[in-house]
Every structure is written in structure tokens, then in C-alpha cells.
Backbone:
């Protein structure tokens, strides 16, 4: 990044003398030898006689120190740089980086008032990007996350406005890596995650793998993926970061900080999964391990307390004592920071570690009594007041919440409200972005307020979508020679979009609707929204077992149960494998089913609620569907009779025969959908399906067109839609050439009560560069790039629907990863809910054509006859009817009838 700008800034006579040491330093730095690179520049600057040449060499040294996060190096190099720099250089952004590196509050508070921050000159692209990311870092240090995001709004808008990055591709990659980190730190997890998905490959390919920037980006990506629940992806990126940091030559304090935070997170992910060996490997190689090899040290930083907390958790998973960690955690605490937030975090880590290592008894009970409330208050108060900043627990915070639940007394003075809040906070682990937006909409009390909030949400979603897509298109272009080329009009357009987003969000704030927070619903308010025959159930993992909460209109009950979590995980995998089997229907093969696993899972997930759950209750499942990635309908209360070497599934007591189940995923979604203003829907049914895919390669440029063309055709969906539409007074089907984005959008603008999309549903990365779930339509081609044959989640959320129910079904879909589908499908459902449709029927794995036609069509027929019935009830009745008269004995296997679930709120219309 700094080579080109430094060389071009030199007077012509000094260029030749400066080029060699700067190029050599760049080569060493990129190869993981940051200290050697510094020495090359230091010697060259000391030997240089020309003051301008010396200043440029020291400026290059400063840039290297900034890139390596080495504050001591920044401060030391700045002293030398100031002595030889020209008067104009005293406005150099590097000097402000040095002021920030001092970590003195009074100095940091005044930095952005200096002359270097007046104006907004984007002529020098690389310099502009460096200045903006520094401004964002300063704003974060000042406690102004909204200002930090504003800096990145402008820099990302500039990148999106580039016609070509030219020789600035590395500067762009470095900036994108920093932007992902800062957006996440500011609380905008959704935007950061979208940017990571869209550009992470480019950043990873562009940054030299042994550079500090590459290692830091891998660590950032791992942390972000952990926050959104992709623990496998997080583990892979953290492994890359660890390997790079262990190989890179850095000053010990910087290396220990970067490597230590990465290893702490690695262990925090591994330990709760029961992989104590992986957690222990990370802790044994931790830079802090040598400080805590023996008792006697008192923790002095927040990072030390975090390390000790994870170390305590790992010891608990191993079933071993850790007297050194316990001694450090129980020592008289020292003040670790002048930052109140860091001080509170350190206190939470300290209490968690003590609780984990302290035996059951009076002392542990005393600590635990206050821990639950403090953790709740810390989580709720930790979210920055930045639009789009929603609380997400980290992996270690999720374990903390589970532990705290054992100290949240349902019989105490809050009557279970603390426990209910902790259950909600624990469930926010994963991709809950769209449900947060839906909750914001639910806080609007009038149609006008809802329109104001919807405008703010859609403008932000639209800006982020265009930003991602445009930047992705830029970085996927082949590298070009020459400087970066900026489209000035495009930059003005992005500035206008940013201004529009800010104005809309300010209007939402004036309407009294916050667009950030933890979205915790008070227990009494939630109970008042339930119908008498509804039971809201939630389950969360805790160390050594499971925690349960059942909420009814007139009661709330909690319990906990010891469980073999390893056996539990194996049972889930066995059931998923059986449900996603792909062989043709076979009466011989389909009498096989992991009955014992299905019964054990019923015992783990449902039986503890039997004191609260009544016959015929509608179950409102508050745990995210991705937590267990298995439909409850396929669980068994008891084994059915044997049939040969298999089971007589015609006599199986499936849960669906007892209860209808909906999956809103959170209490806040239930409140949002039941309190929002309703919409009139005079039209009945709109069906979309059987898209024409084979011509996509010719109609759409690039790889995506070829990928869409390779998707399997779906001719059977036309019949499914026709059967679903029967009996409705008004219906419209968009099939084949009519199923294009322009025609679908035009019909969605009309007030239909029911919608059905019988087409491929895609998740992130199913197609190259696909950053969000989408429905496949017939590509239209033409000049409008938005008519690409994909109706994405953000495009869905951008419309206004009158529909009460949407069905998403498809045949021959290629994705059989049930865990991934359970993470991604709720995003589509929430997008429809934001648009106004509170209930969505989705499928967790590819649907058999015969079953799809029978179950989906019957669900619509039942809703037609009882339009106010909850969709979950209509689905359960359709599944029961299918089981009573299947097209063949093989179809009794739940792989045929159980993929369907109702996401969102399926409560009665009267409650709304």
C-alpha cells in the first residue's frame, strides 16, 4: 500500500535512492519479516543526507508500523519524522496515527478537530482510504461508533465508485479488511458479515499470506463468523490466523496480543462443543500461559481475564481442577482499564471463571445469585447506539448465559423475567439480522410509523446490497495496469444514498423506534400476547445438560436436565442423515429409521415440558431452528412396533400427531407480528414457479448465468401450484416465461392474501458471489442488472405485502446440508415478514415432488376453508392427512413429509 504513494511523493532526484530500500522493506514485510523490514528503512533513513528523502523513508517506516499495529514503533518513528518533514507534512494523517497510539484520552479527544480532517478530498484514492480508516479508528477510541461508521460509509462508497482499482488493488483489499473489523466493532454485524462474504475471497487472495494484515483479517473473519453462528467457518479462519501469527516476525507485545486473542477465541469455540483437546492445545500455546504457569499473578488486563475464563471452562469440560486459574480469578481484582466498558467486561469474565471452577456450595451460590442479573444488564447495555447495531453473544458469552440460567431463580422477585431475558439473549447467537429488523417494525404503533421505519430499513438494506454487489463486481474484474479510476458521478450518487439512509434513520428515531439493541421482551408482555392454547418453549445447551423454559399465558416454568451432550449431538446427526437420504421411495429401505435416536431426542427436547404442555397445544418454538437443525415433527414419544428388520411407521407416534409447531425463533418476533397493523388482502392466491433456466447463460453475463443455467428444471411445480390455487376465488399463476422478476414484482405490489413460490431456494454461496438467500426466477436479461433471475432476501424485504402466509417449496434442490439450510432459511422468512407476511412455510431439505404437491396444496386448501387458522395448524393437519393416506408405505418415512416447517409467527389472527 505504502510503496507507490511514497515513491511518487519523492522529488525526482531522490526517487532512485529511496526506491531500493523501500522495495526491499516491502518484500521483507510481505514475507513475514516486519522487524527486518523496519531495520532496512531505519538504516536507510539514518544514512540519507537529503532531508526530503529521509522524510519519505521515515514516512514509509511509519506506514509499516501502523500496518503492524505497533504503537511503540509509531510513536518512536513519528519523533524522527517530525524533525525532517516539510511544514505541509505536519497535516499528515500519520501524525494523527501517532497521537492515537499514545492512548491518552485528552489527546485522542481532540484529534479529529485538527486541520488534516477538514475537507473530503478523494483525489488520491489510497491516501483517502488510509485517512478514512484512521478516522474510524479514532472515532471508536473516542466512544463514537456512529461517527466511525460514517467514515466507512464514505470510504466504501468511494471503492464502490471505482471503475477500476488499477495498481491500488492491495490498498482496496487492506481497507476492506479494516472495514469488516471496524463495522463489527461498531456493532454493524450484518453489514460486516455481508462485506466479508462478498469480498473475503479477494482480500484473502490479494494480501500476502505472511503479512500482518492477512493474519489480522483471518482473525477478524473468524471472530465475525463465530458471532453469526458459523462455528466451523470460524474455526477454519482462526486456524489460518494462528498459523500466520506463529510464523510472522513481530515485536513480542504485538504478536502476543494478536495471537493471544485468536487462541482465546479458538478455545472458546472448541470447549463448549466438548472438544477439550482442541481447546487445551490453544491454551497451552497461548502467550499468557507462561504468566500463569504457577500461582501468584493477579490479572491486569481484560484479555487476561478472558483467557482465564476460557481456561476455567476448558478445565470444567475436562473434569479437572485448575488451581492456578482459580487463584488468579479469586485474587483481589485490580483496575484493568479507564474504559468503563472494558472494566465491566473484565468483571463478567472474572465472575464466570470463578463460577466455573468453584465447587457447588454457599460461596458458588453467592456469586451466582448476582451473576445472572449482571450478565443480562451488561448484554442489554453493551450495544452501541448505531442503527443496525444488534446484540450478538460471542461463543464464550453464550456459555456464560447458559451458566447464568442456573442462577436465575424463577421463584425470585422478578418471577422469571431475568431467566426469560437470558434465554432470549442466548438465542441471539447466529444470523438474526432480519428478525431484528422485523422487531423494529413491530414497535411502530401506526401505519405511518411503520412506513417510516420500513423506509429506514429498506434504504439501509438497499444501500448495503448495492454496496456489496458493486464492490464485489469491482474486485472480481481482472487486475489492470495504471492508477485507480474513479467515477465521480457514481461517488456523488453514493453520497446521496448515504445521506438518504441517515435522514430515514433519524426519522425513525424521531418516531421513537430504535434501530439497534438486544430486543429483549419482558415476560409479562410476552405472556399477554399468547393465546390460551399456546405454549412457548425454549431449550438451550448448558455445561453438562440442557435448560428449559415453558411460557403460557397464565404461567412460566423452568427446569434443567443433565444430558450426555455428546450422545445428543450424535443423535441429531443420525436423524439428519436419515431425513436427508436421497434414494428413491422404497418399502424395504424406508422402514429403516433411527427410532432410538428420535425417542432420545424427544426425551431431551420435549418430555421435560410435559408438566406445562397440554394435549393439542400449539407449540411456539422460541429457540432458533438452527440450534438443533431438526424438525420437531419427526420426533417420537415412544418406539413404534417392529416390522421385519425395520419399524412399522404407520403406527409411529410422531410429535406432529399431537401438536402443531411454529418456529418464530424469538419472543420479539412474536410480539412484532402480533402488534403490527394488519393489511387488507382482497385477492386470494399468487403462485410463482417452473422458471425457465436453460437460457440464463445467454441472457446473463459472467459465471452466475452459467450457474443458474445448470440448475435442474422444475416442471412438476406447475402442477403443485395449480392444485394449490384450486378453490380460491381469485388466483394468478406466473409460470415459465411469466416468472420473471419484473412480472413477479408487479404482482407482489397487488394485495394477495396467500403467496406460493415453487422454485429453487438458494443460500449464501450456492452461486458465486451470492451473499444472501434468494429465490430463483426466470432470468429476463435486458439493461436492468437487478433483473438477474434472483429474488434476494433484501429485495423481498423492500416490497410491501398484504399476504398473511407465504409458501416456499421446490423439487430437486441441490442443497442437502440441513444445518446450513436451518441457518439460512429464516432469513428468507424474516424478509417476507418485514415486507408484511408474518408466516412462511419453508423446507429444510429438498422436497419429493409427490409430497410437495400433496402437503403444500392441502395446506392452502385448509387455509382457504379456515382463513383465520394459524398456518402451523393447517400444515400439521395436512401432514396428518398425508400420513393417514400416503401414496405408498415408503412415504410414511419422515424424509418425505417432515421437511416442511412454518417460520415466523403462526398465532391466531385474533391475537393480532
Residues:
Amino acid at each position: 500500500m505504502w510503496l507507490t504513494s511514497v515513491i511518487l511523493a519523492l522529488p525526482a532526484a531522490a526517487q532512485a535512492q529511496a526506491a531500493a530500500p523501500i522495495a526491499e522493506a516491502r518484500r521483507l514485510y510481505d514475507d513475514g519479516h516486519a522487524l527486518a523490514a523496519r531495520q532496512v528503512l531505519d538504516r536507510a533513513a539514518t544514512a540519507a543526507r537529503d532531508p526530503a528523502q529521509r522524510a519519505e523513508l521515515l514516512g514509509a517506516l511509519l506506514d509499516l508500523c501502523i500496518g503492524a499495529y505497533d504503537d511503540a514503533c509509531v510513536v518512536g518513528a513519528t519523533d524522527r519524522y517530525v524533525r525532517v518533514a516539510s511544514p505541509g507534512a505536519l497535516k499528515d494523517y500519520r501524525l494523527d496515527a501517532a497521537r492515537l497510539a499514545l492512548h491518552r484520552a485528552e489527546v485522542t479527544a481532540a484529534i479529529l478537530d485538527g486541520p488534516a480532517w477538514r475537507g473530503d478530498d478523494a483525489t488520491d484514492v489510497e491516501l483517502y482510504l488510509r485517512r478514512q480508516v484512521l478516522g474510524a479508528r479514532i472515532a471508536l477510541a473516542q466512544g463514537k461508533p456512529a461517527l466511525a461508521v460514517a467514515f466507512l460509509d464514505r470510504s466504501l462508497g468511494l471503492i464502490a465508485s471505482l471503475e477500476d482499482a488499477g495498481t491500488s488493488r492491495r490498498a482496496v483489499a487492506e481497507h476492506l479488511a479494516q472495514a469488516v473489523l471496524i463495522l463489527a466493532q461498531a456493532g454493524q454485524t450484518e453489514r460486516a458479515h455481508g462485506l466479508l462474504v462478498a469480498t473475503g475471497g479477494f482480500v484473502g487472495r490479494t494480501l500476502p499470506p505472511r503479512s500482518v494484515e492477512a493474519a489480522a483479517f483471518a482473525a477478524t473473519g473468524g471472530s465475525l463468523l463465530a458471532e453469526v453462528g458459523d462455528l466451523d467457518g470460524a474455526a477454519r479462519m482462526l486456524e489460518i490466523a494462528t498459523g500466520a501469527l506463529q510464523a510472522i516476525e513481530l515485536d513480542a507485545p504485538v504478536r502476543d496480543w494478536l495471537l493471544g486473542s485468536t487462541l482465546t477465541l479458538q478455545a472458546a469455540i472448541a470447549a463448549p462443543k466438548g472438544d477439550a483437546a482442541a481447546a487445551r492445545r490453544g491454551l497451552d500455546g497461548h502467550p499468557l500461559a507462561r504468566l500463569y504457569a504457577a500461582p501468584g499473578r493477579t490479572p491486569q488486563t481484560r484479555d487476561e481475564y478472558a483467557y482465564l475464563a476460557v481456561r476455567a471452562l476448558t478445565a470444567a469440560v475436562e473434569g479437572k481442577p485448575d488451581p492456578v486459574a482459580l487463584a488468579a480469578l479469586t485474587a483481589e481484582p485490580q483496575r484493568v482499564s479507564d474504559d468503563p466498558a472494558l472494566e465491566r467486561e473484565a468483571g463478567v469474565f472474572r465472575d464466570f471463571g470463578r463460577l466455573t471452577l468453584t465447587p457447588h456450595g454457599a460461596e458458588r451460590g453467592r456469586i451466582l445469585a448476582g451473576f445472572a442479573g449482571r450478565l443480562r444488564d451488561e448484554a442489554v447495555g453493551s450495544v452501541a447506539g448505531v442503527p443496525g447495531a444488534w446484540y450478538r453473544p460471542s461463543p464464550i458469552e453464550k456459555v456464560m448465559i447458559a451458566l447464568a440460567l442456573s442462577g436465575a431463580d424463577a421463584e425470585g422477585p422478578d418471577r422469571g423475567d431475568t431467566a426469560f431475558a437470558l434465554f432470549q439473549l442466548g438465542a441471539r447467537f447466529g444470523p438474526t439480522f432480519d428478525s431484528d429488523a422485523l422487531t423494529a417494525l413491530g414497535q411502530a404503533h401506526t401505519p405511518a410509523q411503520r412506513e417510516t421505519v420500513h423506509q429506514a430499513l429498506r434504504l439501509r438494506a438497499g444501500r448495503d446490497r448495492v454496496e456489496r454487489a458493486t464492490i464485489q463486481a469491482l474486485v472480481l474484474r481482472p487486475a489492470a495496469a495504471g492508477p485507480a479510476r474513479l467515477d465521480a458521478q457514481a461517488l456523488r450518487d453514493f453520497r446521496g444514498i448515504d445521506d438518504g439512509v441517515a435522514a430515514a434513520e433519524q426519522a425513525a428515531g424521531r418516531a421513537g423506534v430504535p434501530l439497534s439493541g438486544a430486543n429483549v421482551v419482558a415476560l409479562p408482555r410476552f405472556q399477554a400476547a399468547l393465546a390460551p392454547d399456546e405454549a412457548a418453549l425454549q431449550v438451550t445447551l448448558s455445561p453438562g445438560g440442557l435448560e428449559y423454559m415453558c411460557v403460557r399465558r397464565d404461567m412460566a416454568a423452568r427446569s434443567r436436565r443433565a444430558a450426555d451432550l455428546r450422545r445428543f449431538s450424535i443423535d441429531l446427526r443420525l436423524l439428519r442423515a436419515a431425513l436427508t437420504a436421497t434414494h428413491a421411495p422404497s418399502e424395504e429401505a424406508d422402514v429403516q429409521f433411527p427410532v432410538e435416536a428420535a425417542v432420545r431426542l424427544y426425551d431431551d427436547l420435549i418430555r421435560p415440558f410435559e408438566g406445562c404442555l397440554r394435549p393439542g397445544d400449539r407449540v411456539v418454538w422460541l429457540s432458533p431452528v438452527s440450534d438443533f437443525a431438526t424438525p420437531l415433527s419427526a420426533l417420537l414419544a415412544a418406539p413404534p412396533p417392529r416390522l421385519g428388520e425395520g419399524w412399522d411407521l404407520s403406527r409411529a407416534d410422531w410429535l406432529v400427531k399431537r401438536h402443531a409447531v411454529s418456529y418464530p425463533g424469538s419472543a420479539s418476533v412474536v410480539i412484532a407480528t402480533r402488534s403490527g397493523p394488519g393489511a387488507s388482502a382482497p385477492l386470494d392466491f399468487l403462485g410463482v414457479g417452473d422458471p425457465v433456466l436453460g437460457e440464463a447463460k445467454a441472457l446473463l453475463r459472467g459465471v452466475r448465468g452459467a450457474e443458474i443455467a445448470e440448475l435442474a428444471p422444475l416442471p412438476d411445480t406447475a402442477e403443485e401450484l395449480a392444485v394449490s390455487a384450486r378453490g380460491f376465488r381469485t388466483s394468478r399463476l406466473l409460470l415459465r416465461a411469466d416468472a420473471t422478476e419484473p412480472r413477479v414484482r408487479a404482482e407482489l405490489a397487488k394485495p394477495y392474501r396467500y403467496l406460493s413460490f415453487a422454485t429453487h431456494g438458494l443460500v449464501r454461496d450456492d452461486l458465486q458471489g451470492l451473499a444472501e438467500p434468494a429465490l430463483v426466477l426466470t432470468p429476463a436479461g435486458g439493461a436492468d442488472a437487478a433483473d438477474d433471475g434472483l429474488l434476494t432476501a433484501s429485495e423481498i424485504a423492500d416490497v410491501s405485502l398484504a399476504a398473511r402466509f407465504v409458501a416456499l417449496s421446490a423439487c430437486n434442490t441441490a442443497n442437502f446440508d440441513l444445518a446450513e439450510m436451518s441457518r439460512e432459511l429464516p432469513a428468507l422468512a424474516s424478509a417476507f415478514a418485514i415486507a408484511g407476511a408474518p408466516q412462511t412455510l419453508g423446507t429444510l431439505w429438498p422436497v419429493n415432488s409427490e409430497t410437495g404437491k400433496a402437503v403444500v396444496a392441502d395446506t392452502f386448501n385448509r387455509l382457504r376453508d379456515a382463513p383465520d387458522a394459524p398456518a402451523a395448524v393447517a400444515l400439521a393437519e395436512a401432514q396428518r392427512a398425508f400420513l393417514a393416506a400416503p401414496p405408498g408405505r415408503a412415504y410414511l418415512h419422515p424424509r418425505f413429509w417432515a421437511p416442511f416447517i412454518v417460520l415466523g409467527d403462526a398465532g391466531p389472527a385474533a391475537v393480532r
